[in-house]
Amino acid sequence: MPHIVSVDRLSKTYEGGFEALKSVSLDIEEGEILALLGPNGAGKTTMISIICGITTPSYGSVSVGGHDVVTGFRAARRLVGLVPQEVNVEPFETVFNTVSFSRGLFGLPRDPARIEAVLKELSLWDKRDSKLVELSGGMKRRVLIAKALSHEPRVLFLDEPTAGVDVELRREMWETVSRLKADGVTIILTTHYIEEAEAIADRVGVIAKGEILLVEEKSKLMKRMGQKSLRIELTAPLDAIPDSLSGYALEQDGPDALIYTYDTNAERTGITRLLGDIAAAGLHLADLQTKQSSLEEIFVSLVQESAA
Amino acid sequence: MNLYAVMAIFRFEMARFFRTVWQSIVSPVVSTSLYFVVFGTAIGSRIQEVEGTSYGAFIVPGLVMLTVLTQSVQNAAFGIYFPKFIGTIYEHLSAPISFVEIVIGFVGAAATKSLIIGLIILATSFFFVDIRIQHPLPMIAFLVLTCISFALLGFIIGIVSKSFEQLQLVPLLVITPLVFLGGSFYSISMLPPVWQTISLFNPVLYLVSGFRWSFYGLSDVPIAASLAAITLFTILCLGVIWWIFRTGYRLKT
Questions:
Q1: Gap between the Cα atoms of B104 and B148, Å rounded
Q2: B96 to chain A: which residues are within 8 Å by CB?
Q3: Chain A residues whose beta carbon lies within 8 Å of the beta carbon of residue B7
Q4: Does any CB of chain B come closer than 8 Å to the CB of residue A90?
Q5: Cβ contact (<8 Å) for B5 and A91?
Q6: Predicted pLDDT at A126
């Protein structure tokens, strides 16, 4: 299946010499939700800006739906919707008119019914005649999404869509993203919120210092990179870890608990033998708990590795 | 050609014009009326007529030009500068539109606004003086061409400007003096020979002269020179805009 977005050896060096992207290649499958994670200045926004035509690449190429974003910019851009990071809107225009304007800009005739549907989807219909200057920050962000959806894009870029919005709105946006995915829209979102990627993404890309460190299916990534920990609660306090258990990667967690970290992908986790040795050492178990590392821990470890 | 995009930009810009109707329409009409009172009545009482035309009627083409030039530049400059300033320019840059379509949308709207204002001023002046228009079609053509060419200049200023101060700088310090010194309120034949020669280097003189010719058949320079000047100016502005979009100067990073 052809990729809906194909980024090939993309580089960008800004005036002044800052290298924002270093020969980045990335293929995005049609209909997937890809979350791009990365610290500030990693190159996420630069990459999106190049794909959407706002920034000129220094080297490399990008195609959307098989159309080169430079030579076939009209066909490529028609497929793309962009919700930028900054909440910039025309302050004195009404919600309805500004969304209609976006549709026209993308070469489509007026369609009040379509605009109404988009505004209702984003709970903006009641505000259709309000000027943007009168809206809250969260509402303005919804307007940006409505503008991006006004021309029915096949690929939607959400650059930090939930930065600074409340929990309720964030959850509503996630629901919107899920509905768009169900309609076959490909979604690429950059985010600082790892739980956002964890909650809605199919694949996760990690980008740092202008390079893509990895792109992988979220579940596989978490499984591959995921370390698990076993918390062993004992019935009686422990002064020190017995010598017979010194061969295990054990840490004491308070007076009456031990933490055992293991790799789920290893041939043997060592849990059975550990529990036997604990019993042999005369310790009695009160409870057991296991915990999977979060995407955030994986992300932090990857970025730290790249910085090292 | 993405006509829907051109129309979207055009309508959006015109909506701003009608939202600020007092500033857009009433203000130029009031200031033009004041010019008539001050120049037409006060000075006109001392200068009865210029080359057979009453002074009040003589200054009408210059007055229309004065407003049309400044309004064209200001409207177009503000039109493109504002989205840059508030950050909504991303939408124009990421839409499937070419620079030609962006220019037609913004410059078309700015030129239309100043054309409307120019015609309103012309209509206003009928209340003050007797005006005859000997060559109506060339008059309209001159007006439209001037609106377009100076809107193109305004568009360039809007892109190049980094602040509201810079946005005002060229209209205030360049356009207005050039119009005042370009024979708007006098014929250059009334000047000493040295100043007549210097005035010939003022491009606005050619516009005012050509425009006045379409009213009264009077001109400081040959009509062909006026036509050549405005055509050259338009081509020059188009060339600069083409270069701006090709390089993304002050638009793209």
A1: 10
A2: 73-78, 106-107
A3: 104
A4: yes
A5: no
A6: 92
What is the CATH code of the structural domain delimited by A5-223?
3.40.50.300
Please say whether the structural domain A227-292 has been given the CATH code 3.30.70.1560: yes
A62 touches chain B (CB under 8 A): no
Reference A204, options A195, A192, A212, A216; nearest CA is A216
* Beta pairing partners, A235: none
Does residue B252 form part of some domain? no
Q: Name the residue among A54, A100, A101 with its Cβ closest to that of B93.
A: A54
Structural contact between residues A186 and A30, judged by C-beta atoms closer than 8 angstroms: yes
B88 touches A at CB < 8 Å: yes
Per-residue pLDDT tens digits for A12-34: 998 888 888 999 999 999 999 99
Domain boundaries, chain A: 5-223, 227-292
Q: Do A102 and B94 touch (CB under 8 A)?
A: no
In whole angstroms, give the CA distance from residue A185 to residue A31: 5
The pLDDT assigned to A304 comes to: 75
Flag if A89 and B86 touch (Cβ within 8 Å): yes
Does the residue B154 lie in any domain? yes
> How many distinct structural domains can be found in chain B?
1
Q: pLDDT grade, residue B252 (50/70/90)? A: low
The per-residue pLDDT for range A229-249, each reduced to its tens digit, is 889 999 888 888 888 888 888
pLDDT, averaged across chain A? 87
What ipTM, to 2 d.p.?
0.82
B17 lies in a domain?
yes
Q: How far is A78 from chain B (nearest CA, A)?
A: 6
| Exposure class string for A67-87: b at 16+ Cβ within 10 A, else e | bebeeebebbbbbbbbbbbeb
Structural domain that includes position B62: 3-247
Residue B11 in contact with partner chain A when CB distance is under 8 A: yes
Q: pLDDT, tens digit, for every residue of B2-59? A: 889 999 999 999 988 888 878 777 887 888 888 877 876 777 677 777 777 788 888 8
